[in-house]
Design brief:
Elements (H helix, E strand, L loop, with lengths): L1 E5 L6 E6 L6 H7 L5 E7 H17 L3 E7 L8 H13 L8 E5 L1 H13 L6 E5 L2 H7 L4 E6 L2 E8 L4 E5 L8 H18 L1 H15 L3 H21 L14 H10 L6 H18 L5 H13 L11 H9 L11 E6 L2 E5 L4 H10 L2
Parallel strand pairs: 2-9, 3-4, 3-5, 5-6, 6-9
Antiparallel strand pairs: 1-2, 7-8, 10-11
Helix pairs in contact: 3-4, 5-6, 5-8, 6-7, 6-8, 6-10, 7-8, 7-11, 9-10, 9-12, 10-11, 10-13
């Protein structure tokens, strides 16, 4: 097991990465000073696979856990679902110091985080991500959110967990598409902040894709470390942390325009290529760097072309993105692999041209 610290003064917390960790979550939470009741929020699929091990550890640590289930899927990351969970937590007599544990992928992590942030004005949150995407990205940093209408993550709060536990054994049951989904965020982290990791991925991404434990642990630890450092420097997404939105401006818009039929990682992959090509057209990034990015995304099994969607829908979603400032769409661009920066000075005609050509 390896441990990464997210340094946020009195709200600092640890990310634990390794195999066979689910049964140890209970004792670790107890060691943080929590006891008594605990609430586990999960989806019906993950519950069947992993709840028993987590619950056994909680019970051995003296907790009385309550499990709350939601159906799987982005459609349930909604205010309606959050409202139902508030009612079920009230019925379970959850209190201000009752830890709420998110057991699942990014949807469960986002939803549970939002519920924990708002129930009784905030209860302790523990993230136990079971997908690669959640382990390397969404479980870390305190971004919690729900969707509204066709807008993704439009209602939310910054709310840090008290601990993150990433058990790589849970990745064994992921489909090939879900693994690729997570690898998109790993590639993103490398592209914006770690050229050495990018070079490692270029040579070894097939091993991670095949779920080889050593490669998996390496990429989870490296990606989580990049995010931990950036979050420590900019917790509330007001400066350096915005580089973690690389690929998300076009990506979120494509995802929303598809009615969320595209997985998040697939959409981000498309968005990363778009942002790289915009960077290249602006004279910032070498064509050879764009080619390397496209190559590693393809090795991961990710799409690089924009699917057949209405351009108007894509640009409408982009204009409503939460990253818009004073009606200007903000992009994360690259000077080179590992060197990213934020710009709100991108010609939207160029964006439209690149997205159209990418189809």
């Amino acid at each position: 097991m390896r441990t990464i610290k997210v340094e946020l003064a009195e709200r600092s917390y640890e990310i634990r990465v390794g195999a066979g960790l689910l049964s140890r979550v209970g004792p670790w939470i107890n060691g943080l000073g929590f006891s008594g009741k605990a609430v586990v929020i999960t989806d019906t699929t993950v519950k069947k696979l992993y709840a028993a091990s987590l619950l056994a550890g909680l019970e051995r640590a003296g907790f009385t856990p309550t499990v709350l289930e939601v159906p799987p899927g982005e459609a349930y990351k909604s205010l309606e679902t959050a409202g139902r969970l508030y009612g079920e937590m009230t019925a379970a007599r959850a209190e201000r110091l009752t830890p709420v544990i998110a057991l699942g992928g990014g949807v469960i992590g986002d939803l549970t985080g939002f519920v924990a942030a708002t129930y009784l004005r905030g209860v302790p949150l523990v993230q136990v991500p079971t997908t690669l995407l959640a382990q390397v990205d969404s479980s870390i940093g305190g971004k919690t959110a729900i969707d509204h209408g066709r807008l993704k993550n439009i209602v939310g709060a910054f709310y840090q967990p008290v601990q993150v536990v990433a058990d790589i054994d849970t990745l064994k049951t992921l489909s090939e598409a879900e693994v690729a989904n997570g690898l998109a965020e790993v590639i993103k982290s490398a592209a914006v902040g770690d050229r050495d990791l990018f070079d490692y991925l270029y040579l070894n991404i097939e091993q991670a894709k095949e779920l080889r434990p050593a490669a998996l642990e390496n990429v989870v630890v490296a990606s989580a470390g990049i995010k931990a450092d950036i979050v420590a420097a900019d917790e509330r997404d007001e400066g350096p942390r915005e580089v973690l939105n690389y690929g998300h401006t076009v990506g979120h818009a494509v995802e929303a325009a598809s009615g969320f039929s595209l997985k998040h990682g697939q959409a981000v992959s498309i968005g990363m290529v778009a942002a790289a090509r915009i960077s290249q057209r602006m004279g910032l990034l070498k064509e050879s760097e764009v080619a390397r990015l496209v190559a590693v995304l393809r090795k991961a099994g990710l799409p690089v072309a924009v699917p057949s969607l209405a351009s108007a829908d894509i640009f409408e979603a982009m204009s409503r993105d939460k990253k818009v400032r004073r009606d200007r769409v903000r992009f994360v661009l690259l000077r080179s692999i590992g060197d990213a920066f934020i710009s709100d000075d991108v010609d939207m005609a160029l964006v439209e041209e690149v997205v159209s050509e990418q189809g």
